[in-house]
Inverse folding.
């Protein structure tokens, strides 16, 4: 068995999947309607909308299959998201990648697979619309065109979720997306008595970048800082751009005293970007933090207010220093 490699955009892909807040949610008719249609059109026993998480594939819609997830390393869909092309496996027993796969040799008895990647509007491949049969079979050009059409219908449903929860410019969560994700994280941390730290970032002198270099340059600065946050922080951290030149990060299981390594990574990459990019100005930021312990729970709004106040104090102190 050959496990699929990770896509080059894996971190951003997973971040987009988290922002959509679709994993581990209840079945929805808008997705089930498409998999029922696929199962009927292609006369296959199993049709799935499969999402590829960090270490599992999870089924948003499953017709003909009772389980809701399987390990990622044995998934056919993990291979399918490596490109925009369909992955068609006419007979898995004759394919070196899959012949000894537990999905083939085990009770599922998978023989035929056809999967079309489904993407978010950002272009990240989130998973697939896939077909499974227990007998080997062909899949002609008309079949392939029909599967692509149905996958596009799945993408339209994800697009509706994406536009409601994601900041279009940076691909991070917007305020609504952040509040939704952070609310779940706070509840989880309270149940498990884990500490939480919220970081509130503000880009320094951002207005002058827009005024002097134009809004396109301001957009570059915002996207560049968003990319740095995404790269430097953990996949489990909730990162958002609630608006303007402000960014927030919720660090679960992290006390304020332990935030220094994360901030040091951000600072290092911002400094490196300034040296490399030579844009005529230096990207810089101020940051404040607030902490919640299980013994003294706070609302998300209270955390944000405290971190915002700390950020403002940090910004004022930096200005006084020159």
């Amino acid at each position: 068995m050959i496990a699929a490699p990770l896509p080059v955009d894996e971190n951003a892909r997973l971040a987009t999947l988290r922002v959509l807040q679709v994993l581990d949610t209840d079945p929805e008719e808008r997705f089930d309607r498409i998999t029922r249609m696929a199962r009927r059109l292609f006369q296959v026993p199993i049709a799935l909308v499969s999402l590829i998480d960090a270490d599992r594939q999870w089924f948003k819609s499953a017709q003909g299959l009772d389980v809701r997830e399987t390990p990622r390393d044995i998934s056919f869909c993990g291979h399918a998201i490596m490109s925009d092309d369909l992955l068609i496996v006419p007979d898995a027993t004759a394919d070196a990648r899959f012949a000894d796969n537990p999905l083939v040799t085990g009770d599922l008895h998978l023989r035929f697979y056809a999967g079309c990647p489904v993407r978010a509007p950002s272009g990240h491949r989130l998973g697939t619309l896939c077909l499974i049969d227990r007998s080997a079979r062909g899949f002609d050009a008309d079949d392939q065109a029909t599967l692509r059409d149905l996958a596009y219908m799945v993408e339209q449903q994800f697009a509706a979720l994406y536009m409601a929860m994601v900041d279009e410019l940076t691909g991070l969560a917007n305020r609504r997306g952040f509040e939704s994700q952070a609310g779940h994280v706070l509840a989880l941390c309270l149940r498990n008595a884990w500490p939480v730290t919220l970081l509130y970032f503000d880009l320094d002198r951002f207005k002058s970048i827009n005024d002097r270099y134009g809004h396109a340059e301001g957009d570059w600065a915002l996207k560049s800082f968003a990319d740095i946050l995404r790269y430097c922080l953990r996949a489990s951290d909730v990162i958002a751009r609630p608006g303007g030149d402000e960014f927030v990060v919720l660090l679960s299981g992290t006390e304020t005293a332990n935030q220094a390594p994360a901030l040091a990574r951000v600072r290092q990459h911002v400094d490196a970007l300034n040296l490399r990019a030579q844009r005529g100005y230096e990207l810089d930021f101020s940051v404040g933090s607030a902490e919640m312990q299980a013994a003294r729970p706070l609302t998300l709004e209270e955390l944000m207010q405290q971190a915002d106040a700390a950020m403002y104090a940090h910004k004022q102190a930096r200005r006084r220093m020159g």
